[in-house]
Amino acid sequence: MGSKINKTNAARLLDRAGIAYRLVPYEVDEEHLDAVHVAEQLDEDINHVFKTLVLRGDRNGVFVCVVPGNAEVDLKLAAKASGNKSAAMIHLKELLPLTGYVRGGCSPIGMKKPYPIFIHHSCLDCKHMYISAGMRGLQIEIAPQDLISFTHAVVTQIF
Fold it and tell me: Do the beta carbons of residue 83 and residue 57 sit within 8 Å?
């Protein structure tokens, strides 16, 4: 590619922890910020490209779900996993203030606060998975176990 990729905060945190990863740029399409578009750009299986969703539970507040790009979080399962009775997606306008990230660039690594993270168990079937590097146009390729360990994520059924 030739041009240097600027490291994001998420990448710097992984560097500091000594965790292996690879930064993978892709073409941003403002009309299609979803993981399906990212998977197409990377020529990757959609089941290996994960999206980061931020939810709020009725008891324990904000938490994060990381699911394959073509999956929809089951709010009942997510609530149960997070110790809530019910849960809902946060409003888009809350994303940046809560996480420090924008839609299409939300990473489970390096949010403003360490929210509880729940990753769908299908990640364990992947040799590597892709997550946002914390900005549109850049993904992190990482071994699932490294992401789980680094974020102290709970691996569970959330869709």
Answer: yes
Domains of the chain (ranges, CATH numbers): 9-126+143-156 (3.90.960.10)
87-111 residue pLDDT tens: 999 999 999 999 999 999 999 999 9
Q: Which residues of 131-142 are buried (b: 16+ CB within 10 A; e: fewer)?
A: bbbbbbbbbbbb
What is d(CA 2, CA 47) in angstroms, rounded to the nearest whole number?
29
Please give the sequence-ordered ranges of beta strands (E in DSSP) within the chain, or none if there are none: 22-25, 50-57, 61-68, 87-89, 117-120, 129-135, 138-142, 154-156
Q: Which residues pair with 55 in a beta bridge?
A: 63, 89
Share of the chain above pLDDT 70, in %: 98
pTM: 0.95
Tens-digit pLDDT profile for residues 120-146: 999 999 999 999 999 999 999 999 999
Partners of 141 in the β-ladder: 22, 130
Residue 106 phi, psi dihedral angles, 5° rounding: -95, 120
Q: Cβ-count burial of 82 within 10 angstroms (0-12 exposed, 13-18 middle, 19+ buried)?
A: buried
